[in-house]
Amino acid sequence: MTNMKMKMKAMMRSPGTPGRFSHGRSGKNCIGDWPDCLANKEKVMNVARHRRRVVVRECLRKGAWSAEGCPECLGGSNVVRRMSGRLHCKKVCWSSETLFMSAPNLRQFVSLSVCEIDRVNPVLFQYAYAVAVAHRPDTREVPITNISQIFPSNFVEPSAFRDARQEASVIGESGARVHVDIPQNYTASDREDEQRLAYFREDIGVNSHHWHWHLVYPTTGPTEVVNKDRRGELFYYMHHQILARYNVERFCNNLKKVQPLNNLRVEVPEGYFPKILSSTNNRTYPARVTNQKLRDVDRHDGRVEISDVERWRDRVLAAIDQGYVED
C-alpha cells in the first residue's frame, strides 16, 4: 500500500509527464516502466531504449505498471493537451471520472491513471484523478496534493520563479541565498482602490480551498460521486461564507460592500492584469483594461453570447422563486 501511495502522489506532482514521476524534495525521481498503452510510446521508445525504462538521476523506486485491461482513453481524444483545461468540458471530466471510479482494485486504478495521463489535458487529468482519489474507498488515506504545488505558475507572478531558480541553481548551497519577494501589487496599480483587497482575492489558501471543495463536490461524474445529501445547500453556504468574509475585509480597508454584477452590459470600472501563466500552454491570461465592456465570445471551440449568460441567470432565478426546476 505504501508503494502504491507513493506512485499516486507522484502522478499528482508531475502533470503531463508520462512514465517518470518526480517525488520528494531531494530532486530524485520515482521511475516506472512504460506501459503498452501510452499514446506516444513509439516516440518515447526512441529516446529510452534501455529495457523500456527512462533513467533520470537516481532510481529510488521502481514499479511495474500493469496494462491489464487498459482501454482506449474515454475522454482525452477531443481535448488538446496544450490547451488550457476548462472544467466546463463536462463530457471529458465525466468520462475520466467514471473510468477511474470503475477500476476494481487499487492496482488497476493506478494502471488506468498511467494510461490516461499521457492522453488527457493535464489540468483535466488532475481534476478527474483527484476526484477519484477523494471518493474511492481504497484511496481514502492518500493525501491530495495542493493545487498550488501542482500548477504553481497559476498562483505566483512569473518573475518570482526566475529569481527562485537563480537562487537554487546558481547560488546553490553556498549559504548566500536570499528570500524571493512576491510583489503584492503586480495585478494592478496601488492607485486602484480595489487593489487593497488583492491580498484576499489572490490568496493561495483561499483559492486552493475553492479548488479542493469542487473535488469533494464535483459538478459531473458517476452517481456515487455527485449524489450527496444537502449538496446544493452546502454549495450555497460555502460561497456565502467566503463572500461574507470578503465583505468584512472590505470594511476593514475602508471600502463599501461588494456590488452585484447584475448588469452585464455596463462598463467594468476596475482594471485587472493577472500576469500569470497557464501551466499547460505557457500563455498569459488576458488582462481587463479600465472601463471595459463584456462582449460576445466567438472562438473555434465554442461561442457564448451575453444574451446566453443573461438567459441562464434568469432561469436560475426563476427556479429559485418557483421552488422547482423545469426541464
UniProtKB/TrEMBL annotation:
Pfam families: Hemocyanin_M (PF00372), Hemocyanin_N (PF03722). PROSITE patterns: HEMOCYANIN_1. Residues 1-10 have a biased composition (Basic residues). Residues 1-24 are annotated as: Disordered. InterPro entries: Di-copper_centre_dom_sf, Hemocyanin/hexamerin, Hemocyanin/hexamerin_mid_dom, Hemocyanin_N, Hemocyanin_N_sf. It comes from the Eukaryota. SUPFAM superfamilies: Di-copper centre-containing domain, Hemocyanin, N-terminal domain. Residues 148-326 form the Hemocyanin middle domain. Residues 98-140 form the Hemocyanin N-terminal domain. This is Prophenol oxidase. The lineage of its organism: Eukaryota, Metazoa, Ecdysozoa, Arthropoda, Hexapoda. The gene is PhoxS.
